[in-house]
Recover the amino acids of this structure.
C-alpha cells in the first residue's frame, strides 16, 4: 500500500513539473561546430529524459548479457541445492521409518547434489548402519574427522560404533578426543565417565566427574553421590596397602553421602583398629539412622577391642535404639544376645517379628536360640522348616545379580552405584532355596557366633570368640534327581561312620555353619525310618543307604521331640550324601 502511494505521488510530481514547464514557454538555442539547434525548453527536457532512460536501458541490457553465465550457474546451483535438501529431508524420514532401501537411494541423491554438506555425510552413515554395513559407516565417520566442521559428528559416530562392537578402549579414546575438541559437549564427558567406570579407572573417573560438575553437565547432588561411590571404591582397594589414604577417602565419601553403608563400614573399621572408638561410633550411628545394615551393627559391636559379649550386647542395643522401626535393629540385638548366650533377650528382641515380619534370618536366629538354650531338636526343626517358606532378607543386588558384598559398579553393564540393599523379588519356592536344612546335632553343637562379623570386621577389628572345635567335614555330592516320588528306608549305620545330614539348595551355606563347621549326625536307635521323597530329594539307588534327610517327621516317629509344624506346601530340596 505504501509503495502504491509513493508511486502515485511520483507520477503526480512528474506531471506537475511538465505542466509547469508547459506554462512557461521559452527557447533553447545551441550553436556548436557550425550547427545551430533551436528548440523549446519543454521539448529539450523531454528529449533529455528520454535519452537518459534509453542509456539506462542499454546499460542494463549489456550488464545482463555480461552476467548471464553466472546467473545461469547460480540458478542451476539453487535447483541442485533444493533437490539436495529435499533428498536429505526425505532420507532422514526414511531412516526414521526404518526403510533402508529408500534411505540409501535418497543418500545417493543427496551425495550428488550436496557432496560436501555435513548432513549428507550423516545421512550416508546412518543409511549404511540401517542397512547393516558397519564397515561403510565407519569409513564415512572416519572421513568426517578430516574437516573441522564434521569432526565432532564423526567422533560421535565412531564412539557409538565402538560401543556397539564392545570396544571399550576405542570408545574411551573417541570420547576423550571429543571432550578435548569441544569441552561444552555433554555427551563426551558423560560417555568418558561411563567408560572409565566400566574399566574401574577410579582416578580418571573422579577427574572427569569434577570437570562435568564444573561445566554444568551434571547436577551437584548427583555428582556428590557419584564422587562418594568412587572414593569408596578407591578406599576399598587401598585399605590393605595404604590405610591412611583409604581412611581419608572413606571419610570424604561419608561426608558426601552419609547413607552410603560401605563408606561408613570402612571408615569405622579403620578408626576402630586405631583405637578411635568414639569417632568410629559417630560415623556408624549416623549411617545407621539413615540406612541400617548388618555390617554396621557388626563393626559397631566389635569397635572396642577387649569388650565382653555382654558389653557388645549393650552397645548394639544402644545402636538399635537409634532406629527402632527398622527390622535390622531387633535382628542385630538378637544376634549379639545369642553370642552372649542371653537367649531370653534374643527371643524378646525377635518376638515382634515372628508374627507378620518373619524372614529367613529371623527363623535361623530362632533355631540357634532353641538349639543353644534347650537343645530341643523338634523346635529347631520347626524353625528351620518355617525358614524354608519365610520371606527373603535384603541383599546387595544390581540388575538381577545378587552379591554377598557391595561393589561400586554393576557386573552387567558397568553402571556406577548400581548395587542396592533390597529384598529380591522372587517366587516363594525360590526364596526357600536359600535356607539350609541344618543338621540338628550340628546346630546344637554350634557355639553362638556371628557370621556377619567375619564379613564386616576383617582383621583390623577384634574378631568374635572362636567356635568350639568341630569334626572335619566330609565332601558332599548332589544326588541324581528322578521323576517320580518314592519311599526310601533310612537305615542306621555304624556309630563310627558319620553321615552328612545337611542339605543345601543351590549349594548355599547355612549362616550358622559359615565358619567351616561340618554337618554331622549319627543315627540313633535300631529301627529304620521310612521317608517319602519328592523328585527333587530322591537319591540314586547306590546312595540310598547313606542318605539322611532332615524333614518334618510323622507324629508317631520316636525320634521327634516336641510338636511338628505343618508345611503350607512341599519345598523342593536336593539330597547330599557323605563320600568316604
Amino acid at each position: 500500500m505504501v509503495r502504491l502511494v509513493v508511486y502515485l505521488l511520483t507520477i503526480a510530481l512528474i506531471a506537475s513539473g511538465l505542466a509547469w514547464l508547459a506554462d512557461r514557454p521559452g527557447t533553447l538555442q545551441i550553436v556548436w561546430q557550425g550547427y545551430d539547434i533551436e528548440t523549446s525548453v519543454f521539448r529539450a527536457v523531454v528529449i533529455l529524459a528520454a535519452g537518459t532512460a534509453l542509456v539506462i536501458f542499454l546499460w542494463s541490457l549489456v550488464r545482463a548479457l555480461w552476467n548471464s553465465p553466472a546467473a545461469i550457474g547460480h540458478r542451476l546451483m539453487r535447483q541442485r541445492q533444493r533437490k539436495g535438501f529435499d533428498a536429505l529431508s526425505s532420507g532422514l524420514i526414511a531412516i526414521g521409518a526404518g526403510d533402508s532401501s529408500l534411505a540409501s537411494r535418497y543418500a545417493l541423491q543427496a551425495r550428488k547434489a550436496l557432496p560436501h554438506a555435513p548432513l549428507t555425510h550423516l545421512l550416508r552413515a546412518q543409511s549404511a548402519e540401517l542397512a547393516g554395513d558397519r564397515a561403510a559407516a565407519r569409513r564415512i565417520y572416519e572421513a568426517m574427522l578430516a574437516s573441522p566442521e564434521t569432526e565432532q559428528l564423526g567422533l560421535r559416530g565412531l564412539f557409538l560404533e565402538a560401543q556397539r562392537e564392545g570396544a571399550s578402549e576405542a570408545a574411551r579414546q573417541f570420547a576423550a578426543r571429543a571432550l578435548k575438541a569441544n569441552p561444552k559437549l555433554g555427551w563426551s564427558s558423560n560417555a568418558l565417565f561411563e567408560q572409565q567406570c566400566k574399566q574401574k579407572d577410579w582416578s580418571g573417573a573422579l577427574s572427569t566427574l569434577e570437570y562435568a560438575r564444573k561445566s554444568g553437565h551434571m547436577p551437584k547432588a548427583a555428582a556428590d553421590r557419584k564422587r562418594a561411590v568412587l572414593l569408596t571404591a578407591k578406599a576399598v582397594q587401598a585399605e590393605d596397602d595404604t590405610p591412611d589414604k583409604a581412611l581419608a577417602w572413606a571419610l570424604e565419601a561419608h561426608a558426601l553421602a552419609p547413607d552410603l553403608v560401605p563408606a561408613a563400614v570402612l571408615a569405622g573399621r579403620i578408626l576402630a583398629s586405631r583405637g578411635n572408638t568414639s569417632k568410629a561410633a559417630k560415623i556408624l550411628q549416623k549411617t545407621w539412622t539413615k540406612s541400617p545394615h548388618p555390617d554396621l551393627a557388626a563393626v559397631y559391636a566389635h569397635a572396642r577391642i577387649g569388650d565382653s559379649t555382654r558389653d557388645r550386647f549393650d552397645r548394639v542395643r544402644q545402636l538399635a535404639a537409634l532406629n527402632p522401626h527398622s527390622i535390622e535393629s531387633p535382628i542385630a540385638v538378637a544376634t549379639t544376645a545369642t553370642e552372649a548366650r542371653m537367649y531370653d533377650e534374643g527371643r524378646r528382641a525377635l518376638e515382634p517379628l515372628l508374627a507378620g515380619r518373619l524372614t529367613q534370618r529371623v527363623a535361623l536366629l530362632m533355631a540357634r536360640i532353641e538349639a543353644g538354650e534347650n537343645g530341643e531338636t523338634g523346635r529347631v526343626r520347626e524353625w528351620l522348616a518355617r525358614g524354608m517358606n519365610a520371606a527373603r532378607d535384603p541383599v546387595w543386588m544390581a540388575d538381577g545379580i545378587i552379591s554377598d558384598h557391595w561393589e561400586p559398579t554393576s557386573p552387567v553393564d558397568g553402571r556406577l552405584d548400581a548395587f542396592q540393599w533390597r529384598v529380591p523379588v522372587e517366587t516363594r519356592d525360590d526364596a526357600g532355596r536359600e535356607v539350609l536344612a541344618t543338621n540338628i546335632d550340628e546346630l546344637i553343637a554350634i557355639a553362638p557366633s556371628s557370621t556377619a562379623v567375619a564379613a564386616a570386621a576383617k582383621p583390623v577389628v577384634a574378631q568374635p570368640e572362636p567356635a568350639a572345635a568341630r569334626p572335619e567335614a566330609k565332601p558332599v555330592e548332589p544326588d541324581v534327581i528322578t521323576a517320580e516320588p518314592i519311599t526310601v528306608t533310612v537305615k542306621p549305620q555304624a556309630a563310627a561312620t558319620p553321615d552328612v545330614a545337611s542339605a543345601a539348595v543351590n549349594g548355599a551355606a547355612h549362616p550358622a555353619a559359615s565358619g567351616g563347621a561340618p554337618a554331622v549326625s549319627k543315627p540313633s536307635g535300631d529301627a529304620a525310618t521310612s521317608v517319602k521323597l519328592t523328585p527333587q530329594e530322591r537319591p540314586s539307588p547306590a546312595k540310598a543307604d547313606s542318605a539322611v534327610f532332615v524333614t518334618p517327621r510323622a507324629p508317631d516317629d520316636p525320634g521327634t521331640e516336641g510338636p511338628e509344624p505343618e508345611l503350607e506346601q512341599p519345598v523342593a530340596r536336593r539330597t547330599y550324601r557323605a563320600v568316604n
